[in-house]
Design a protein that fits this description.
The chain has 3 helices and 3 strands, in the order αβαββα. It has 119 residues and is α+β, with helices and mostly antiparallel strands. It is elongated and about 60 Å long.
């Protein structure tokens, strides 16, 4: 009896996972071809590049919504890169999220990747 219950639970979990994948596709902007500034295009979408999915979330207590350019400047300063090497992918004001990516080549003096410095 217990084995049958475990099989039923596993089957229902698998069906729910398939339903979720089928009804919630990946947004189109994540599957666009990579525009690699280094000239070495891997052919893979940006979704597979960890430097292409950086996230900034601001606090709800702020009176005004922060300016997009100001947020990119703060992120560039924090990462220690130039502001023009960061580009906005998506700004979701309702959820207080800024998705951005790093365009520039990895710095020669730094051994830590940008996405690890952002964490």
């Amino acid at each position: 009896r217990l084995r049958q219950a475990a099989w039923a639970a596993a089957l229902s979990c698998a069906l729910v996972a398939l339903w979720d994948v089928m009804l919630h596709p990946v947004p189109g902007w994540q599957l666009e071809p990579s525009t690699d500034a280094r000239g070495t295009d891997s052919g893979l979408p940006d979704i597979f590049d960890q430097n292409a999915l950086l996230l900034l979330r601001w606090k709800q207590q702020l009176q005004n919504q922060p300016d997009e350019e100001n947020m990119l400047s703060v992120a560039a300063e924090t990462l220690g890169v130039e502001k023009d090497k960061l580009v906005t992918q998506n700004l979701i004001v309702d959820h207080r999220l800024l998705l951005f990516k790093f365009l520039g080549p990895t710095e020669k003096g730094s051994k830590v990747p940008v996405h690890m410095r952002w964490k």
